[in-house]
Amino acid sequence: MKRKKKLSIKAGLPPGTPVYMGTMEKETEISIIDYDPENYQEIQIKNVEECFVYKDKSTVSWINIMGLSNTDVIERIGKGFNLHPLVIEDVLNIHQRPKLEDYRDYIFIVLKMLTYNDKSHEVESEQVSIIPGNNLVLTFQEKGGDVFEPIRTRIRNDKGVIRKKGADYLVYALIDVIVDNYFVILEQIGEEIEGLEEKVLVEPSPKVVQRIHRLKRNLINLRKSIWPLRETLGNFEKMESSLFKSSSLYFRDIYDHTIQIIDTVETFRDMASGLLDVHLSSISNRMNEIMKMLTIIATIFIPLTFIAGIYGMNFKYIPELEWKWGYPLILIVMLGVGVTMMIYFKKKKWL
Amino acid sequence: MKRKKKLSIKAGLPPGTPVYMGTMEKETEISIIDYDPENYQEIQIKNVEECFVYKDKSTVSWINIMGLSNTDVIERIGKGFNLHPLVIEDVLNIHQRPKLEDYRDYIFIVLKMLTYNDKSHEVESEQVSIIPGNNLVLTFQEKGGDVFEPIRTRIRNDKGVIRKKGADYLVYALIDVIVDNYFVILEQIGEEIEGLEEKVLVEPSPKVVQRIHRLKRNLINLRKSIWPLRETLGNFEKMESSLFKSSSLYFRDIYDHTIQIIDTVETFRDMASGLLDVHLSSISNRMNEIMKMLTIIATIFIPLTFIAGIYGMNFKYIPELEWKWGYPLILIVMLGVGVTMMIYFKKKKWL
Amino acid sequence: MKRKKKLSIKAGLPPGTPVYMGTMEKETEISIIDYDPENYQEIQIKNVEECFVYKDKSTVSWINIMGLSNTDVIERIGKGFNLHPLVIEDVLNIHQRPKLEDYRDYIFIVLKMLTYNDKSHEVESEQVSIIPGNNLVLTFQEKGGDVFEPIRTRIRNDKGVIRKKGADYLVYALIDVIVDNYFVILEQIGEEIEGLEEKVLVEPSPKVVQRIHRLKRNLINLRKSIWPLRETLGNFEKMESSLFKSSSLYFRDIYDHTIQIIDTVETFRDMASGLLDVHLSSISNRMNEIMKMLTIIATIFIPLTFIAGIYGMNFKYIPELEWKWGYPLILIVMLGVGVTMMIYFKKKKWL
Amino acid sequence: MKRKKKLSIKAGLPPGTPVYMGTMEKETEISIIDYDPENYQEIQIKNVEECFVYKDKSTVSWINIMGLSNTDVIERIGKGFNLHPLVIEDVLNIHQRPKLEDYRDYIFIVLKMLTYNDKSHEVESEQVSIIPGNNLVLTFQEKGGDVFEPIRTRIRNDKGVIRKKGADYLVYALIDVIVDNYFVILEQIGEEIEGLEEKVLVEPSPKVVQRIHRLKRNLINLRKSIWPLRETLGNFEKMESSLFKSSSLYFRDIYDHTIQIIDTVETFRDMASGLLDVHLSSISNRMNEIMKMLTIIATIFIPLTFIAGIYGMNFKYIPELEWKWGYPLILIVMLGVGVTMMIYFKKKKWL
Amino acid sequence: MKRKKKLSIKAGLPPGTPVYMGTMEKETEISIIDYDPENYQEIQIKNVEECFVYKDKSTVSWINIMGLSNTDVIERIGKGFNLHPLVIEDVLNIHQRPKLEDYRDYIFIVLKMLTYNDKSHEVESEQVSIIPGNNLVLTFQEKGGDVFEPIRTRIRNDKGVIRKKGADYLVYALIDVIVDNYFVILEQIGEEIEGLEEKVLVEPSPKVVQRIHRLKRNLINLRKSIWPLRETLGNFEKMESSLFKSSSLYFRDIYDHTIQIIDTVETFRDMASGLLDVHLSSISNRMNEIMKMLTIIATIFIPLTFIAGIYGMNFKYIPELEWKWGYPLILIVMLGVGVTMMIYFKKKKWL
User: Around Cβ C52, how many Cβ atoms within 10 Å?
Assistant: First the structure.
């Protein structure tokens, strides 16, 4: 949450005003990978205008823009590639919901890249925009990272079929690597759940409640990022654009993965709410134990103390006090009362 | 709730009877902004009839009516612009659900403007009706406020594209500013949730329950205002009317925002009901702590008090009482019982 | 519930057998209102056959039948107007779900009229059947009441447009008045909820649980009556029959009201289940208070009583007892123990 | 549950293998009713082959087969009427879900007949298969019973329209009588709920929990039998077969009943889960009462006992003990402490 | 869970890379059954290439591949039968969701075979891939087992119609045997539920909570395996491929079974969450019992002990102590107090 600016700062601004909503101050880096089955070129450019030459090349060009805080640069890129102002606004507004929009000449895809922060145990998200056009793929990231590195390596080394295929396959590969990454998050959450399942039965405590609560919040956030993905990816099949026809099998594959991820998130949610129920039951069981303990001790000793109290009274004429065997007798009576109580508890299965 | 009249006062009245259902007594103010790319005019009128000249002008006219308590004025406006009696009834009946109705010559849009009352911590809503016709936009507000001010400024200063575009874009800008305002509400509620998340774990109390309950009620009301919006805005795409074709991209943008808001409201609802569960668990944990305390003290001292009680009895023949080391011995026995108990509790992990 | 006969008495009877399922024994009263824009006539008839003359008149005829216990009369009316035996069976079987059935020559509409019984605080329902035909509207009520009175007045006094419009508008007016009445019920329930919201936080008690339970049952019953209404009214738009084309705007208006009512019922349901959660939390909080009280008193005084008990023992040789300052000393020790405990509780925030 | 064989015994058998899955050992009885508007014949046959003559008669023939344990007989009937092996398998497999399957020459309908066992308070179900063909209706029951008796009587006595109509009307009458029977079950469950509503508030106990649990299980089972019915009956309208066109009005009537039954089951489910919540609240309220009692007694008397303990100490020099008015004074002090506590509790509204 | 490799090891690999995700190290065994109505042949082959001759035979060939850890062999089989690389990847990735994909020349079906581990009481799953082509069926299993044995026996012995029908019927038989096996799992879970229902009422304990939790987890996992099956099998009807037209009746039969299984799983889920509620109620009831016990004992004896304490005080002038009948009197007073308390508790129905 703290990684984002308040949404309210945008209220009242004219639509299409480019405002970066994140807090990641970073100089924009533009790197271009240009390839066809035979050739391959990888460059870093300083000047925004240099990348416009890749607009109409017959080779596949992947232009990766990293760092969104310099809105001016992003806006110039948008204009250079004839992107709609609303697209540029959405690229910068990192509160976007995953979505796919068809703008005839290009498609605008918004995705969330998730990372599991090992310290705060929170799932964090970064917005990635992918804009495939004609033989051209633009990608925008906030801070980047090495998630796309495997794809770069594959292009460099001509591994797999990626060099033989077009921009659509590149888009597929980019989305695939993001979605595959979700499985890593799910595994970490799965481990957290397994850990909690044991804790909750063995030693329920406020700390466990706190962890379950955090887990639930993580799952709620995860769900918010992943549910729209299903619809987004489902749209690839319905799209009129012929851009993705040839790799529809691949997109169906990611779609399947997404469904699987959603299934798992839902399963985890079911488990997480089960955990709190089990925690409540565990606590109740414990309370029961404690109360039993208290009740047994109190119900045995309170009557005995009362008996002792009687013979502690200072009345002049208490005949029993004069008896020679009074003391041992009363001890035996007390023992009798105690044992009777114990038997009663045993019968009630409290002991 | 108290800002509205009872719905029951309308039961039995013929349909189309204009009854103002709010409690905001206020003289009706009519302000007109008339513009095209070159010219711009802003006037306040006193006489209702003066605004009818803007009916068929080729420039875009935005007629804003503020204050609905004078039903007579509203009715005259309705007749002047040929609005259906049911429309006027709905403008005045501020219990309306957000909706969009296509009346061929004009469209009738009902929205809710939300404000977060910082004192009562309640979300309050005000009904806004927007009626776009041919080069004409009528807006009805109960008390107004400055929510539309940024748009007026944009028109005045020719900022953005608003002066270049038609009435449809104005409608878009009006709805956009209302929807953007929802994000502000959501942020305030988000902060309330964050505050409660801490409270609920650290110091659960009846006051916290009250706040959670209020939060839930706010979310229920919010949801009631926002859910129908989705459908309403979804209708723009399906509308036969060609009025909004040219700005469909913009309406899709608001639609996206609405989905995002609904997502957030649902997420908040999930979190809010989680809060009550966590509260219950916290309370149970606390109760456990208290009971443990009581049980430990009671189970240690009750048996000891019993032992003391025995030797407080006044029997004539209690041999132990005569022993020289009787007193220290019994103290040691008591210490032994106490320590044994402590060890037992330690083993049970109660200490 | 007690106002209805058991459904089981119908099991095994041939379909179309007219059996009155209510318990409202009442002679059937038939009143006819016949009108066109110019003329107006209102009569009460005794003989069933008298009403058949209104079957094919060009004026609008509204025949209201009150009292269903005389099944013979109802059956004769059914035959006289060529109604299907299943329709007559359904008119008499007051367990019907709200519905709309198109029988070509006429339409069969079943609605529920709701009243809030101020004594038992239960929502009660009465079945109303409306059968519009060609220039003819039949209505069947169990006991009648004054719910339709405003419409009669409007027809009599030629108020609004009702006399100018046809039978379809009359049907609309009848349904409208029934649906408007639901808002009255909702308001009464809304007040009950507001009352309970305060009670539940301030003084949770078994009586409050009972009231919440009754509230929930009322909402369940309300929902059962109102949900099918949505579908029923939605069917007006889809109907092939041209009977209602001209007043479709009006029916859309009732449809909107119904949606609004359903929204409110769902909101109330959410609130009602929230109430029980808050009640449980309140009770838990209270229990906590009580337990704290008990624990503080017990943990302070039990150890002190134990100390007093020690020096109440009758051992011959207890040196402390001989000390001159023994008594004040032990009092100071006791005070010390008590104060220490208090400080401990203060630190634990129990005080 | 115990009335059925394990489903696992079928695993691995080739499809279409006829295995009776029930435990109702009973000789198969075949009874035939053959009728047209003028004639009527009712016979019991011993030899399976005798019934094949009714296959192509122009009169309506209703062949009722009672007792499924003799799979050989059932199989021969299946072959005689050219039924698909899967149909025969499903007739015998009484675990079937209610369904309707169109096999061109005939239709295969599976329904559940429900009975409320007054001893175990469990809802029990029996499978009924109805196979309408051309002028022919086959029905299969496990043990039979008198549920179809009213229809036989109607045919015998030419009551209602049944003799005048075809096989489709007979099918309708058979389904109608089964569905009508559900209302009887619902009434018995409704009474159970009303009884529990009172119990739960007045005397919550483990037995009540048990009854609520049984109620919920009954409703779950009921729902399982009734939900698929909606779809099944809905299919009658969509069916291509012209078999049921003429009595579609009647099937719509049963469909309405089914919806009503489903509504009621859902309502009951809502009520049943409400009951457990109320039970928990009642128990909590009771616990509160008990704890208050304990706390009041303990917090009043424990300090008093402590005071008495002090003056029971045997210190040599306790000046108060020597005072003449020491005893009455201390009694007054004790009374003062007690009364103060009482006032405190009164203020806290515990008394 | 432990039977599977982490999903994360695949992140970043190019799509279509065959990676076995299970942990079942096993040499691949290939067995072929080739048959037509007259002939039958069953062989085990060592060399992968030997099985390619069955690709275009006019007889039905069933090639069963057991053991997936040798990815090289699986890949060669894939290439030999022209399977898409994504298919081979999915065969090896045993985390797949049940699905059906139409690849024109062949169909790719993924199913889960479930087993109930009697020791850990967990439901375990194994992935089975079925790939029907032209007169050819490929099946891939991880470890195999005897689940397909009944089908082999049926083919061998020419039992049922299997030899007379084509590859589609074989596919049906394979799926049927897997789905039938689910009933066995459901029965075992059903027994577990019945056992728990008794336990939960009679002796609620942490162990019961643990078992309920495990049960819920099993049901969640079961649901995850079975829900997609519905869609998968529903797809058979929609498929364009004419491969399955002739046995559509049979697939409808499995579809019905699947619906039945889903119904049962949902019913079980309802029951399982009911169990936890009942457990909580049982625990609360028990706590109530314990608290009553404690309160009765304490409220009776604490006041009595106080009275005894008073007359244990050592004041010089306590007149009662001198009375001759003081002691018996005080005993009678104590008895009176005790009996009064008892009567009070009786009236409160605590005894």
Answer: 14
